């Protein structure tokens, strides 16, 4: 007999996506929903996922997690990481089916909220009659670009990676060089391209799309997704869009980072808004050559800095995209001789990880060199800290475009064609531009305005609060 109602969520197997989805769950339990989150096991498992799950289940008893049995996929160097990840998610379809059936036997599922990368689960849920929603963990501009991607796909037979100089125009987005499209769609020879096409074709089929952004931050892009401009060939009403952000995670610290508060006592001693904070997300890693250039640029800029440095990559392949929070490297070996000594009065280097949300909210932080991961962008916006946009992977070049061209909360770094190397001179120039120039001041003012707008969006009468209320109402109306 059916007794209770629940919402089931299915995040992609990446810690950032899981954390974001959990933040959405925390919002929805305030409206008396119970939430079940499905998690895969066996690929891209984060080392602290078990302790994270325990923490959330203990602090929020209405949120429960169901782990799938472990599934093995083999990742070879001839295949992209995205292709293997998508294959892994597809292989888990059988687990989704069996768990959804088990849950529906005892409970009404009001909605199945999935990550874009888990689209393979949509048909399974629809076949059982469960309404499917997306939770889009990036912003509205990327949502619009992805929704429009099936159209762009029909306009050329070439791979974006071979279309240097060709501009991509998607509704709600500034023009983007084709070679800067998100990684998984760059190459038609990569199975990930075709999977992404399949995912993006399904966006319009969802009952609704929940987006971690707020209307005032991305007004043009939000309009493009709300009025359906990004679904040009759609013959029916586009899915409802709910911009409920910014959702900022509050529990992202490794145990080690929580124990080490050197950065805090150091920041406490610095003048207000004087420190440039550099951090490149959970996966951004550089070669030693690139790290040395950053060090030289920072030193020459003369500005104070707090820099999170991950273990460098050993080859020249550019950016490594695995989660690596190991500390077993010597800082001295990755910097120019004497760098730490010469900058000790005005710089602090932290190995591997710093609690970013806390760092950004410190009054001494006056600038943020970011890899443009969407969570980092939102965290910078919420803290009102102006940024230097240095995109590395995934959809970060699109985010950079939005930050620099639309929001005007960042200056962008010039990256060399091909290997995307950034010189020390460029680092110095951009740090000075942000911290010393008139343009830097304008960007700082704009950032502070967005900080207020972000707070207002989440306030009692704010746009995100209204969007959440609309979402909750729709979820409550669903009755099988
Ligand atoms: N993060 C952190 N400390 C670090 C590196 C990352 O707290 O040293 C957090 C950051 O605050 C953000 C998340 O990890 O919430 C990274 O997500 P984002 O979307 O910015 O980038 P990704 O790691 O997914 O590329």
From TrEMBL:
Q: Does the keyword Transferase apply?
A: yes
Give the Enzyme Commission number.
Answer: 2.4.1.-
For molecular function, the Gene Ontology terms on record are: UDP-glucosyltransferase activity
Gene3D superfamilies from the UniProt entry:
Glycogen Phosphorylase B (3.40.50.2000)
Query: What CDD domains is this protein classified in?
Result: GT1_Gtf-like
Question: What residue range is the signal peptide?
Answer: none
Q: Which UniProt keywords apply?
A: Glycosyltransferase, Transferase
Belongs to which family? Belongs to the UDP-glycosyltransferase family.
This chain belongs to the protein called: Glycosyltransferase
Species whose genome carries this gene: Cicer arietinum
Gene that specifies this protein = LOC101511986
């Amino acid at each position: 007999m059916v007794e209770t109602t629940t919402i089931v969520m299915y995040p992609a197997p990446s810690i950032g996506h899981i954390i974001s989805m959990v933040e959405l769950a925390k919002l929805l339990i305030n409206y008396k929903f119970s939430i079940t989150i499905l998690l895969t096991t066996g690929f891209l498992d984060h080392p602290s996922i078990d302790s994270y799950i325990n923490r959330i289940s203990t602090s929020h008893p209405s949120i429960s997690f169901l782990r799938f049995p472990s599934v093995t996929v083999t990742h070879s160097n001839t295949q992209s990481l995205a292709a293997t990840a998508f294959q892994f998610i597809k292989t888990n379809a059988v687990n989704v089916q069996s768990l959804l059936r088990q849950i529906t036997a005892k409970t009404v599922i009001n909605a199945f909220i999935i990550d874009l990368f888990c689209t393979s689960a949509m048909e399974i849920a629809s076949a059982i009659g469960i309404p499917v929603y997306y939770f889009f963990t990036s912003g509205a501009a990327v949502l619009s670009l992805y929704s429009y991607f099936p159209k762009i796909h029909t306009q050329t037979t070439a791979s974006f990676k071979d279309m240097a100089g060709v501009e991509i125009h998607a509704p709600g987005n500034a023009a983007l060089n084709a070679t800067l499209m998100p990684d998984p769609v760059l190459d038609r020879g990569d199975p990930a391209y075709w999977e992404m096409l399949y995912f993006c074709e399904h966006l319009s089929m969802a009952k609704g799309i929940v987006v971690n952004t707020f209307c005032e931050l991305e007004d043009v892009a939000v309009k493009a997704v709300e009025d359906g401009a990004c679904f040009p060939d759609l013959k029916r009403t586009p899915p409802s869009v709910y911009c409920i952000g910014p959702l900022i995670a509050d529990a992202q610290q490794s145990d080690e980072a929580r124990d080490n508060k050197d950065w805090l006592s150091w920041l406490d001693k610095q003048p207000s808004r004087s420190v440039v904070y550099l951090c490149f997300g959970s996966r951004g890693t550089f070669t030693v050559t690139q790290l040395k250039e950053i060090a030289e640029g920072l030193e020459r800029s003369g500005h104070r800095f707090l820099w999170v440095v991950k273990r460098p990559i050993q080859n020249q392949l550019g950016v490594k995209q695995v989660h690596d929070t190991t500390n077993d490297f010597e800082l001295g070996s990755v910097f120019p001789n004497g760098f730490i000594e010469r900058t000790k009065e005005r710089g602090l280097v932290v190995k591997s990880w710093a609690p970013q949300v806390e760092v950004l909210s410190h009054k001494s932080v006056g600038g943020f060199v970011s890899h443009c991961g969407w969570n980092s962008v939102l965290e910078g916006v919420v803290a009102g800290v102006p940024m230097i946009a240095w995109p590395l992977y995934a959809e970060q070049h699109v985010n950079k475009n939005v930050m620099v061209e639309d929001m005007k909360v960042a200056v962008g770094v010039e990256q060399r064609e091909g290997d995307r190397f950034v010189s020390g001179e460029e680092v110095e120039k951009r740090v000075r531009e942000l911290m010393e120039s008139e343009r830097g001041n304008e960007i700082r003012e704009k950032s502070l305005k967005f900080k207020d707008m972000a707070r207002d969006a989440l306030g009692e009468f704010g746009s995100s609060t209204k969007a959440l209320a609309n979402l909750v109402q729709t979820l409550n109306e669903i009755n099988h």
